[in-house]
Amino acid sequence: MTDASASEIMIRQRFSALGRTLPDARSGEVEAIHKARIATRRLREALPLVASGSRGRRLEKFARGLTRALGSVRELDVALLTLDEMQADGEVPRAPIALLRRVIGKERRRLCVDMARRIERCDLHKLRRKALAAPRRHRPKGQRGRTGVSDPKRLASAEARAARRAMGLRAAIESAGGIYVPDRLHQVRIAVKKLRYAMEITRELRGSRATARIRMLTGAQDLLGRIHDLEVLIMRIRALQGSEQAPDLKLSADLDRLVRRLETECRQLHARYMAFKRMLLDLCDHVRVVAAEGRDAPAA
Fold first, then answer.
1. 46: nearest Cα among 217, 200, 165
2. pTM as predicted
3. CA-to-CA distance for 210 and 34, rounded, in angstroms?
4. Is residue 33 part of a domain?
5. Domain range for residue 193?
6. Mean pLDDT of the chain
7. What is the number of domains present in the chain?
8. In terms of domains, do 109 and 199 share one?
9. Rounded to whole angstroms, how far apart are CA atoms 42 and 35?
10. What stretch of H or E contains 5?
């Protein structure tokens, strides 16, 4: 019977998920890039359970670099998808959208080359062996030879990590306040994402099937992600207007119209986020209580 703890099985599953997506991501497939990026984030959140010290730092550094390479291209993919939406709406002339698609498409092709090189250097089998080497050496004798065994210490460690993520989210929410400040909302988004992945881990280690709280975090993440994506596109439009590629006055006016359309949606989404705040803060309190009391409560 395979000698593996629940946390090791989880790590293997995350490496497998990443391995399934990387070949298509390397070729530039939009959905594969998205899935591969999510897989790297889930892997990064789980690595501290099985790899610590210098080994853990090296593994996390590599995974973080892969996340960034995929993320750079993914950001452009989202911008192109947003432009498709704007064009379908018919509220903005086609010329500024076509110009933006050309500029963004050129940048995407360049970044795809860098991303492919990063993926080519990725030896997942070697990384997985390194990640799992330490826990095999240090597993208690009573657990050896058993498959899917629960590890209370790792569960406690995962819950403590989730509690720290919850504290980070609360701090980000309080810092963002109630005024629309894109940079601060972006920090809330990052904190939501980290807490979601941390809670997925505690849920798996507990063997829980509860998903309500994780679904709520996913909804908040999607909402805040949309705001961030729109703001990034707005910044790209402003940069284009002030660059050597600056369009004529007519086209620039059309770009202004597109910006106003994007800004209006950002404000509408912010109003929806404000309705999420209380639920997010309550969730933070729940996660911290579970970690502090160590009670048998579902993590999601």
1. 200
2. 0.86
3. 25
4. yes
5. 151-300
6. 87
7. 2
8. no
9. 11
10. strand 4-5
